[in-house]
Amino acid sequence: MGHLEENFLEKNLDSEASYVFLHPDRVALQDVTGQMVMLQFMQTELKSATLPTTIHCDHLIQARTEGKSDTKLAIYENNEVYKFLESTASKYGIGFWKPGAGIIHQVILENYAFPGGLMIGTDSHTPNAGGLGMLAIGVGGVDAAETMAGMPWELLYPKRIGVYLKGEMNGWTSAKDVILYVAGKLSVSGGTNSIIEYFGPGTKSISCTGKATITNMGAEIGATCSIFPYDERMELYLKSTGRKEIAELANKYKEHLVGDSEIEKDPSKYFDKIIEIDLSKLEPHIVGPHTPDLARPISKLADDVKNNNYLDKISVALIGSCTNSSYEDMSRAASLAKQAQSKGIKAKIPLLVTPGSEQIRATIERDGQIDSLKSIGATVLANACGPCIGQWHRPELKHGEQNTIVTSYNRNFPGRNDGKRETMNFIASPELVIALALGGNLSFNPLDDSLTASDGKTFKLDAPENAPDVPDNGFVDIKDVYITPSENPDAVQVLIDPNSERLQKLEPFAAWDGKDLNDLCVMIKAKGNVQQIISRLQVLG
């Protein structure tokens, strides 16, 4: 309640009609949406943002060949954008994360998210920070600019959906399967204007980054945000990422960071809708194509492929993204690669790996997971969004060619990943994607089906090894990926090329005269959702 305007504390709020005004703790911007935010913020003529803000360069790096060369080329192609964002960050007291530092949501989780906090970000997967007990919500650029200028942030008072978790996951089942199951139950719009709260004894069996996977994909069901109660797994992650003091503070106020006991006793009294999941019985799931709520257990996929005439042969497998690129994710995926390596086989199709951050990349390079993945043919892409948001160059595909991909990403609307509406994306956990890459076909079920080793003998994959939440030897300390704001901001010049075709300073609007605006031109009218609009624009572009 500390983030709520005082005059709302005693009101009876209606989730269908009431708006509340909130004061977030911080703001996060990515390099595409952040451009307009900074241009708008400049219009306020303030000397600095009024609350902690960071810019993250992760959306403009296109996947072409491999991480280093792709990042280098992106810096060249987007130099004027990066210079503009870096200069405005330096001038207005904003932290700047360079291209290659990592995906915004992974970097936020590693550095800024904290239990009990409220954050807004100009990206729909901002709720990723809910894995650390933070209410984190994706917003538009105007909302961010106004909040940075000190104005309260307006939100339609949300409904509450409770997801009760009991039991523990085992074998092939992972945190990804929890949210894929929930998506199948609620649909892509079932969480609209709702906060999804996970509760129950099963929450403690999921790692902090596993929780983040679940809250991240709440965006795919329309949720305002999702959140888990604070526990020892969050404490471990905070301490392992250099935030011992925050962990100790969270422990001190733990009673305020978890649900009241009355909620578990009578959840129907507190939630508008309740879903119950027994994690010990949950099967590995896979969703798609073309929508993240078309869910089924992996055991049912082969029948779906046959009955719906899906293209069985997989063209590319991809793991990573802001949803599934943690140390735990990469370790479980690498354990399957080790099994394949020991049998002398490789992935039957191209396998692309996206680390979530430079910290993750350097750590899994040190600890051997990258070598294991490369041993079966993987290519490591840049620490960026890449194919997950459509930044993927695929010259090998012919125009109109149908193909199937499997990913550990979050969205799979037509054209989402490569601008080609014929591409069918099936989403699963990283470990299931690795198994399908080894099998080569959608109809391959690693829980039941066998592979052929290099000596001609058949074998079945063992379930992925249990991986630690965080590395036993700690995360690698990363340098030269972050730029602090200038200590002399008045001397900093905002860099915009006067001949730029991408950037232009905004001219202030004339003061409103109090009259209605009439005869305005409608620029575009469309049906569907934002992702469908974006995919069409990618195709047109």
UniProtKB/TrEMBL annotation:
User: Keyword Iron: yes or no?
Assistant: yes
The protein's superkingdom reads Archaea
BP-aspect Gene Ontology terms = tricarboxylic acid cycle
Q: Does the keyword Iron apply?
A: yes
* Record GO terms (molecular function): 4 iron, 4 sulfur cluster binding; aconitate hydratase activity; metal ion binding
Keywords, alphabetical: Iron, Iron-sulfur, Lyase, Metal-binding
What sequence ranges are listed for the domain Aconitase/3-isopropylmalate dehydratase large subunit alpha/beta/alpha? 16-440
One Pfam match, given by its short name, reads: Aconitase
Known EC number(s)? 4.2.1.3
List, alphabetically, the InterPro entries matched.
Answer: Acnase/IPM_dHydase_lsu_aba_1/3, Acoase/IPM_deHydtase_lsu_aba, Aconitase/IPM_isomerase, Aconitase_4Fe-4S_BS, Aconitase_4Fe-4S_dom, Aconitase_dom2
Name used for this protein in its record: Putative aconitate hydratase (ACO, acnA)
* Gene field: ACO
